[in-house]
Structure to design on (325 residues):
C-alpha cells in the first residue's frame, strides 16, 4: 500500500520551467486517472486507461521513466507473445500485459520501418529485446492523437516490466507530441499513484501531463532531474532515485519501522512505476516477516495484494518479491 507522488521535469529544466505551465493558461496541464479500467478480457487493472486503433481496443498502461516510446504488447494472444499455459491462461496474460493489441483488427494501423518511425529508436537496448513499430490512433479521456508512433512488444519475455506503458523519459514521444500539438505547455509530468492494497479503500491516482497538481502533494516541491550515467544517457536501471529513512509497517497489534536505525540505515530506493513487483532489502524483509508472524519464511516470495516500487540495494539479493496482480 503506497501513496507516492513524484514530479519529474524532463531534461535539465529549472524549477521555474516546471511551474511555467501553471502560469500560462493557454494550454493547461492534462490529468489522466490512475484507476481500475476493464480490459478486453473483462478483468480490471489499475493504470492509465487508453484505447488504441479503430475500432478502439482497450488498455491499462503503466508509467515508465526510462523509456521514451509508448508500448503495447502485440496480439492476438498466442504462445509467442503471451505465456499461455495452465498457470497463465489468456485472460491472465492480457491482464499482466495491460491488454494485447491486435493490429489486424484495426483499419488505422500503419506499419513503420525503423527508419520511418518518428518515435525513439534506441529505447529498448538491454532491458526488453525487440519491438515492431507503427502509427495508430491513440485516445485517452482527454485527447485523441492520430498517426501516433507506438512500439509493439512482438515477443514474450519474462521481464516483469515488459507490458503496455507510457514512456515518459527525456524524449518522450507522448509529451513531445502533446507539446507540438499545443495540448500541453511543457515537457513535464507528475504522478500520484493513489492508494491501493488489500482490503483497503482504494483512492484513484492521477498522471498529470504538462505540469503538476498542487492539491496532490504536501510541503515544498523538490525538483529532481533524471539520473544520468557518465555517457550522458538516462540511467536505464533507475532513472528516479529516492532515499528512504523510514518505512512504517502496521499490523493489527502495532506499528514497527522497517528501518529502525533511521538515517544511519537510509536506503536508496528506485521509483520504477512500470515494474510491478515489490522488492525489499533482506534486513527490511526480516522485520516485515516478523510482523507477519513468519508467514513468508519459505521462498520469501508470495502472491498478494501489496505493492511497492522496486528497491535498489546493491550487494543484497532481493529478499521479498510480491507480485502485484
Ligand atoms: C532529447 O532530449 C534532450 C534533452 O531535452 C535534447 O537535448 C535532445 O535534442 C533530444 N533528442 C532528440 C532526438 O529529440
Ligand atoms: C503562453 O504560451 C503561448 C503559446 O506558447 C505564448 O505565445 C505566450 O507568450 C505565453 N504567455 C506567457 C505569459 O508566458
Ligand atoms: C476523441 O474522438 C472521439 C471519436 O471521434 C470523440 O467522441 C471524443 O469526444 C474525442 N475526445 C476528445 C477528448 O477530443
Ligand atoms: C480494482 O480492481 C481490483 C482487482 O479487481 C479490486 O480488488 C479493487 O477493489 C478495485 N478497486 C476499485 C476502486 O474498484
Ligand atoms: C530515450 O530514452 C533514453 C532512456 O531514458 C535516453 O537515454 C535516450 O537518449 C532517449 N532517446 C532519444 C532518441 O532521445
Ligand atoms: C505484529 O508484529 C509483532 C512483532 O513486531 C508480533 O509479535 C505480532 O504477533 C504481530 N501481530 C500479528 C497479528 O501478526
Amino acid at each position: 500500500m503506497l501513496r507516492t507522488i513524484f514530479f519529474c521535469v524532463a531534461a535539465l529544466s529549472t524549477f521555474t520551467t516546471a511551474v511555467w505551465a501553471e502560469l500560462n493558461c493557454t494550454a493547461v496541464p492534462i490529468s489522466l486517472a490512475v484507476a481500475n479500467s476493464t480490459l478486453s478480457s473483462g478483468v480490471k487493472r489499475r493504470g492509465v486507461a487508453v484505447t488504441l486503433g479503430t475500432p478502439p481496443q482497450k488498455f491499462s498502461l503503466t508509467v515508465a521513466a526510462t523509456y521514451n516510446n509508448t508500448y503495447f504488447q502485440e496480439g492476438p494472444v498466442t504462445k509467442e507473445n503471451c505465456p499461455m499455459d495452465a498457470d497463465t491462461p489468456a485472460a491472465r496474460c492480457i491482464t499482466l500485459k495491460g491488454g494485447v493489441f491486435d493490429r489486424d483488427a484495426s483499419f488505422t494501423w500503419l506499419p513503420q520501418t525503423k527508419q520511418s518511425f518518428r518515435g525513439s529508436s534506441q529505447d529498448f537496448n538491454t532491458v526488453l529485446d525487440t519491438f515492431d513499430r507503427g502509427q495508430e490512433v491513440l485516445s485517452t479521456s482527454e485527447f485523441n492523437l492520430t498517426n501516433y508512433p507506438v512500439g509493439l512488444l512482438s515477443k514474450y519475455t519474462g521481464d516483469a516490466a515488459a507490458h503496455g506503458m507510457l514512456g515518459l523519459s527525456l524524449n518522450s514521444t507522448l509529451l513531445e507530441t502533446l507539446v507540438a500539438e499545443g495540448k500541453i505547455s511543457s515537457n513535464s509530468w507528475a504522478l500520484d499513484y493513489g492508494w491501493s492494497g488489500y482490503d483497503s479503500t482504494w483512492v484513484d491516482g492521477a498522471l498529470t501531463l504538462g505540469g503538476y497538481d498542487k492539491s496532490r502533494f504536501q510541503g515544498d516541491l523538490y525538483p529532481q532531474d533524471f539520473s544520468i550515467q557518465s555517457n550522458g544517457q538516462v540511467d536505464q536501471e533507475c532513472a528516479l532515485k529516492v532515499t528512504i529513512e523510514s518505512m512504517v509497517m502496521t499490523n493489527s497489534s502495532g506499528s514497527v519501522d522497517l528501518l529502525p536505525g533511521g538515517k544511519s540505515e537510509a536506503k536508496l530506493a528506485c521509483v520504477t512505476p512500470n515494474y510491478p513487483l515489490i522488492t525489499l532489502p533482506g534486513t527490511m524483509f526480516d522485520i516485515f516477516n516478523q510482523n507477519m508472524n513468519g508467514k513468508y519464511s519459505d521462498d520469501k516470495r508470495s502472491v498478494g495484494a501489496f505493492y511497492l516500487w522496486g528497491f535498489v540495494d546493491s550487494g543484497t539479493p532481493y529478499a521479498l518479491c510480491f507480485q502485484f496482480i
Remarks:
- The two ends are 13 Å apart (CA to CA).
